[in-house]
Request: fold
Amino acid sequence: MRIKPEIIKHVILFAALILLLALAACTIPGSVSGVPGKNCFFLSGSARDNCYFEANKCSKMSPGQFRDSCVAELAKASKNIGVCDLIQQEQTKAFCQEQLAESTQNHSICRLITDPYWKNNCHYHLALSREKDTYCLLINEPRQQYDCYQELIARTNNPVLCEFLPAEEQEFCQYRIGIAMRNTTLCSTLENPINRDACIYKIAKATNETALCGSIKIHDIKTRCQEYFEEMKAQLQKTK
Reply:
């Protein structure tokens, strides 16, 4: 018996529909109907934990470092500091709190951290991001505190911060800021006469102000300053 073409067409369409439904059911492990985490229970070991991690179902994961990392990511995403308290491992909890302090720019969270390493990092990063030198002072690791002030000085060019550096570095700190800010008044406060005049000389060159050479006291530096502008004038005349 010959099968009508219309029937064959319907059979093919029906088979295609069945195949499409079958493919739709073959979603990634841990999901059913496109909803992550629905089917993780049927996996085992690390595969189950990975499944729950991807689905943000941290509470269903096996206790341990991987679960704590999941909770830390969840806290960061939700910006909820209370979520960090669910972490069992103390250092991971401290990391969670530090990350939240950075992302929310909330320095009060730093005070909650008990781990010294992450507490210091919290003060350090917020000192720089918020340009607060008082946070540098809270760092109890000498080298990191020093780096905090150095980085903050580089960002703000605030000469007052030079006072927090070792005594032998304070004048050079002010010297660099004086040149960077083209502040001859700051140059004039330097104790070392060579630094004072060299600072003014560099500003004179940077601003192309010949008159500044006159305020230089040391003869050799003043002469060098004047010669610089004479050479510049001579070169300019040659190009005309």
